[in-house]
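Cross-check.
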Amino acid sequence: MKLIIVSNRLPVVVEKKDEKLNLKMSAGGLVSGLTAYLDSVKGSSSKKGPDFLWIGWPEISPDEKTKKLLKTKELPKLNAYPVFIPEESMDKYYHGFCNNTIWPLFHYFPSYTVFDHDLWKHYKIVNNLFYDAVTEVVEPDDIVWVHDYHLMLLPNLLRQKYPKLAIGFFLHIPFPTFEIFRLLPGKWREEILQGILGADLIGFHTHDYTQYFLRCVLRILGYENNMGKLIYGDRIIKAETFPMGIDYDKYHNGVTKPAVQKNKDKLLKMLSDMKVVLSIDRLDYTKGIINRLIAYEKFLTDNPRWHGKVILVIIVVPSRTGVEQYRQMKKQIDEMVGKINGRFGKMNWIPILYQYRSLPFESLVALYSVSDIALITPLRDGMNLIAKEYIASRREGDGVLILSEMAGTAKELGEAVIINPNDIEEISDALKEALEKPLEEQIESNKVMQERIKRYNIVKWAEDFMQQLLLLKSEQRQFSARLLNSKAEKKIISKYKKAKRRLLILDYEGTIIPFSGHPQRVAPNRQVISIIKKLAKDKKNMVVIMSGSEKTFLEDWFGKIKDVALVAENGSWIKGLDGEWRVIKPLTNDWKEQIVPILKLYSERLPGSFVEEKEYSASLYYRKADTELSLIRAKELLDDLVEFTANLDVQISRGYKVIAVTNSGVNKGTACLHWIKDKSYDFIFAAGDNWTDEELFKLMPFKATSIRIGIVQSYADYNLQSYEELLNLLKKFIGEEQL
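Predicted model, tokenized:
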């Protein structure tokens, strides 16, 4: 078993100069973070972690000879495997769809978002190239961990070929609310969600992102979840929160390294006795750099006593310099820094020290260690590890972190000074508060944050994800054991063939036909009628069809088939082979005068729903109603009905997007009890699809066989994924070929 990490870029950058290849480690939080985890696995004898392989783009478009050399010789030395992407596709996939569509939209900048079908086409092309690369190296028992928004289609591509493969997906940027996500064209958003759902475990930085994703799955695809778990196809999938950590010891202990100390001494000498406010970010409109400068200008305007005593050290790391928005932003930052320095600067003091470059580790940690304040104010950020790195680097415990509430990190670092990055006055006030915060309060707050960051570091984050993924796969295997396999199917068919008297109890909608928005309109097709006729024609068989529908509909559909018994209204009415309908027991319907108006009230509050009133039951169907509103209204209705019917002789049941009220003691189990109790049957078979059938499954004799349609927990012996699979089984009962 090996761990295959798949990300847009490899952890190494490949450069070709003078016909020679040069490989060097690439920068970035994901690369450094996962490298730390992989190093911990390799370096610990107590951790029997898997071998690993990292798949990604090597940031080069080489000729065929170089491709072969990289794939077979150079990159394997580093446990890396390349994905070669044509330049046109790379430009439209990365600079186009990833950075001009997904990045702005997921960071709540819809006005910056480009909706271009050609870019979407190349996003799909590149995801397929990554799929091809994975299939070249993956083994059935491997774990594939896909990372970030560049590869949201990949999990499902892999799932189509490898149904049992362990696949994890982690999104490192925010997942937006439904109202933002729905701005994507309908086909795109469906395919993106389906792509992500190809994974077994889906990870996000914060609880909010997790809930936004689950809500989009509900609203767009219609799948409900229970505590983050949902049934998708034949699998249990889980969406969970895993706030990414850092290599705490690397930053905390890095301060003591000679190279860092040397850089620190230089900085202290240069910055003299001034209070240092640090701002460091990649050049990006999501980082709030402009608002930060405006707020600093306001702070200097409102607090002249701090002139000459404070300096803002602002480091802007170059990024996406080929994109016009970023060039304009760089120009705006340059102009604002010049304006502020020109307005407030003196011969012996400049308010802002500005550098447009990236920093090596030693310089970065030295800067963290000399900065009294870290000013981190992104307008929207998936996590922001800089905040954690700053706190980890404060060995003496002093320092103040000013942090945007829009950063994922704010959910963990609540002891920081939390601000709204759009409120200039609040940022300015926070600077004053941070500069005046007593040392003992600084130490107290930082100690709590340091302990938390140290405890849930990058290694713990990755281990937690891997452990949850393996537990989920174990749960899937246990659940899959309930699926009717070929061996169990042959055994059931054999028992059927050998039996002298057989009882076949079949639910109707969702079991032998698909669901419909209106249950009364779902007449059986020719295939179903043919199967039921042939089953009933066999003198050894007793066939019972159950439904929640009225008896008149069942009569129209199956009344002409000889030797078929019917159960209507979920057990209220029974029609035996004598052709007469009778109630299961003395029933009343005077309660409907009180209950039906309540159901109609809720139907009016839930567009797309309707009330079906039958002789001894009443139901609210909401299959065509808004999915999310349906959940809310259904819960409200259940609560009201439970309270209102406390003194009535009725019961409430919930099926597939329907809430039904019937007489107490009426269900499909009791309706079929007199058949089940007949000792002459040596083969009893029952199939159903929802909770109303569970009462029947509970009453089934030990040697009987019961099947629940759908991948859910059940009292039935087996599960099948769909009604088509049950029809195939019934056809085998009567000796016909599979559909």
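The longest strand covers residues 2-9. The chain is about 45% helix and 20% strand. Passed to J.P. for a second look.
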